[in-house]
Amino acid sequence: MRASPPIATSPAGEPSVPPLRDAAPSQPGPPSSPAPAPRTPAAAPPANPPLADIAPGVAARPATIPSVTVNTAAKPSAEPTEAPRLSIEGLSAFFGSTCAVRNVSVSLPDRFVTAIIGPSGCGKSTMLRCLNRMHETLPLARVEGQVLLDGQDIYGRAVNVTAVRQHVGMVFQRPTPFPTMSIRDNVAAALLTSDKRPSRARTDEIVERALRRTALWDEVKDRLRDSAVGLSGGQQQRLCIARALAIEPEVLLLDEPTASLDPISTQKVEELVYELRRDMTVVIVTHNMQQAARVSDRTAFMLAGELVEVAPTTTLFTTPRDPRTEAYITGRFG
Length: 334
What we know:
334 residues; alpha/beta; four-stranded antiparallel beta sheet; six-stranded mixed beta sheet; Rossmann fold; single chain
């Protein structure tokens, strides 16, 4: 595991099947013919527990079981062997007096893709924003607990927030290119927060490398001076990922990065996510369980602000430990 440079500091439910009816009495036969024995009622299969007992307050939907194909090319054990890159300890996030994330503790290993799934409003995106201190930018928002990046609490009093975001990059649900900047300058903008700004030639090298990593270079190399808003939605999202990669973060946070993209653009982003695991820790929030199964090594399930279960992706989608996880992935709610 490559070590991070120190973070800069600044001053100061189903019903049971009813039993079969008993067979009708047999007609009398000849004295020598014995009466047939009565049939034994069929045993009823066990019923699923009521949804209200599994996930209180969550509305049920028809029990259609989705087909989730797990990516067998993921790491065979999906069990980390090194120290985690990020450790979350007792994390709670609030909007005023409302607790959106409750006492979450989980480790995010280096060079793994971790997917966070769960129904809308369960706190997935809020928890993600806590990992690079974006949550506290909202009015009345606050955080309790610790988020350790290579052992250092990013919420420490002397920690520089800008330095944290250089180590932990983030890409949002909708593409957010800077409308007044060119394609090149959108990528280079990430370098403006650096203490030592690179030369123009070095900046061009960084921009090209970031665009190549996102498979965007061949599509835009002849129009780097054009406005970024002229790109398609999928290209804009890959441009935003390139901007995040330009500063070489140790961790990349992706908040539903393909929610607004077409299938072809979605595939390109997923392929990129799968490749990025070679160099960094990736955490992706998604509503799409097929996507989580395709791109992630480990999957975490959240419900009502709580972390219910985290496990290797193959395990979570085939043999979940918690009945709430099973209810969600089989389509009983969500």
